[in-house]
Amino acid sequence: MQQRQRLVLLIFSLFLVFQTSNGHNITRLLAKHPSLSTFNHYLTLTHLAPEINSRTTITVLAVDNAAMSSLLSKNPSIFTMKNILSLHVLLDYFGAKKLHQITNGTALAATMFQATGVAPGSSGFVNITDLKGGKVGFGADDNGGSLDSLFVKSVEELPYNISVIQISKALPSAVAEAPTPGPSEMNITGIMSAHGCKVFADTLLASPEAMGTYEDNVNGGLTVFCPLDDAFKAFLPKFKNLTASGKESFLEFFGVPVYQSLSMLKSNNGLMNTLATDGASKFDFTVQNDGEDVTLKTKINTVKITGTLIDEQPVAIYTIDKVLMPRELFKAAPTPAPAPAPVEAADAPKASKSKSKSKSAPEPASDSPADSPDPADQVADDNAGVSFKGGRFVAVGLSFLLLFLLL
Ligand SMILES: *[C@@H]1O[C@H](CO)[C@@H](O)[C@H](O)[C@H]1NC(C)=O
Ligand SMILES: *[C@@H]1O[C@H](CO)[C@@H](O)[C@H](O)[C@H]1NC(C)=O
Ligand SMILES: *[C@@H]1O[C@H](CO)[C@@H](O)[C@H](O)[C@H]1NC(C)=O
Ligand SMILES: *[C@@H]1O[C@H](CO)[C@@H](O)[C@H](O)[C@H]1NC(C)=O
Ligand SMILES: *[C@@H]1O[C@H](CO)[C@@H](O)[C@H](O)[C@H]1NC(C)=O
Ligand SMILES: *[C@@H]1O[C@H](CO)[C@@H](O)[C@H](O)[C@H]1NC(C)=O
Question: How far are the Cα atoms of 28, 100, 125, 134 from residue 96, in angstroms, in the given order?
């Protein structure tokens, strides 16, 4: 029975993965307005569009093609462009009506730029002020009080999910416009070392193969989940016990070959491949929201994202509170009543491409999930005991599958 429920839950969570739409699609909303097409194009190029789609209660300050041209004439890199445009996404809902009726006539709004952690001090905030004659002025808060971007018109309003407003010109901000280093100039181990993941970074630097895999992926998109020092230090004896290829796969397991912002992680729950994924060696984990937290989970253990070290497309580095253990290399502490493992979600959406680099895959310690008892299941799926009404018919179909597996 428990087995059946677990399978039902597995299938159910796959349904959830496919149904992540939040109702609005900024690309589609802006497509109706040709004068905003350059702005729209850059929301896509900078990967801000999915972040905007994953949020509600936001306001997008769009500028027309002429204003975009003058911004682009300064030749900002795509990474700088992302900072500039993320300053134009306010984390609050301002319809045209609310804009003209701001309490006390002025307000500061946090932006997506502020939320990335890249913006120091108040530079990620936008000042909105009702001016004389019914005008509304906007200015980056680090801009010396100048409010010379003016409200033009309301473009789209889906209360209270998303409001798109046109303003007369891009918000000038020295901080957002500052050149950002290209990803290949980024010293990812340096960033990790400086922010609580020194042991992991040093271990990575000591493995040229794993380090090379990380470097190969920096330009195309890379997300790293680095275990904090205390956790990784305590784990070192287990790490040293691994074979050479086990060590390499283990280190690569903490990198994902696509860029994932925190909001993308929050809205794209499901299986995620890693830099260690190579054909039959899955080395994947499940991303799952737990309230405001984002957890990463294997059959062995679950860890939590505790911080963002950097989030500058195409690279994001997060800290995790514990060392996530791939089931390909570790066995869970045995618990009573081993049961056959459920079918692995073989056709679950793949969050990332497998790395093309081919290397000899380490032999998994023992468990091919389809045909051997896997006590780890029992540990990992504690919460599967919830009853699930209406899942019966699925369960009936699945019990055939189970029967088949048991044979
Ligand atoms: C949003 O709309 C664009 C253009 O219609 C489409 O290409 C894109 O797939 C849509 N995104 C989502 C998440 O539906
Ligand atoms: C408006 O101004 C009053 C008086 O200065 C102040 O007490 C109040 O907190 C302000 N409200 C907002 C929303 O800023
Ligand atoms: C916004 O800027 C104006 C002009 O510099 C200033 O008077 C006002 O206090 C600012 N508003 C807030 C909420 O900081
Ligand atoms: C706002 O988003 C929710 C889903 O998050 C959706 O059900 C609702 O219809 C949306 N409202 C509008 C006005 O689009
Ligand atoms: C990256 O940072 C580390 C630690 O700060 C340093 O030892 C290393 O030399 C740096 N690498 C490059 C290429 O700058
Ligand atoms: C290392 O491996 C040996 C032999 O398999 C085992 O007895 C020992 O407990 C392992 N040490 C750790 C820290 O896992």
Answer: 20, 7, 19, 11
Cα-to-centroid distance, 103 and ligand 2 (Å) = 7
Q: Which residue has the tokens 């618990």?
A: 335
For the whole model, what pTM was predicted?
0.60
Domains in the chain, start-ordered, CATH in brackets?
2-16+181-406 (2.30.180.10), 32-177 (2.30.180.10)
Which of the ligands is closest to the CA of residue 101? 2
User: Residue 204's CB: how many other CB atoms inside 10 A?
Assistant: 24
- Nearest bound ligand to CA 144? 3
Tokens 């691994």: give the residue. Answer: 242
User: pLDDT 10s per residue in the chain (407 long)?
Assistant: 455 555 444 444 433 333 344 589 999 999 999 999 999 999 998 889 988 998 999 999 999 999 999 999 998 988 899 999 999 999 999 999 999 999 999 999 999 998 876 777 788 999 999 999 989 999 999 888 899 899 999 999 999 999 999 999 999 998 888 887 777 778 999 999 999 999 999 999 999 999 999 999 998 889 999 999 999 999 999 999 999 999 999 999 999 999 998 888 988 789 999 999 998 889 999 999 888 899 999 999 999 999 999 888 789 999 999 999 999 999 876 654 444 444 444 333 343 334 434 343 343 443 333 333 333 333 333 333 333 333 333 333 444 343 344 44
Classify residue 317 as left (phi > 0), alpha (psi -120 to 50) or beta. Answer: beta
Cα 262 to Cα 52: distance, rounded to the nearest angstrom: 12
* Cα-to-centroid distance, 53 and ligand 3 (Å): 30
19 CB near ligand 4 (under 6 Å): no
Contact residues for 16 (Cβ-Cβ < 8 A; gap 6+): 269
CA 63 to chain CA centroid, Å, is 27
CB 325 within 8 A of CB 316: no
| Cβ 329 vs Cβ 254: under 8 Å | no
Residues 6+ apart with CB under 8 A from 87: 111, 112, 113, 119, 124, 126, 140, 171, 173, 176
- Cis peptide bond prior to 160, omega within 30° of 0: yes
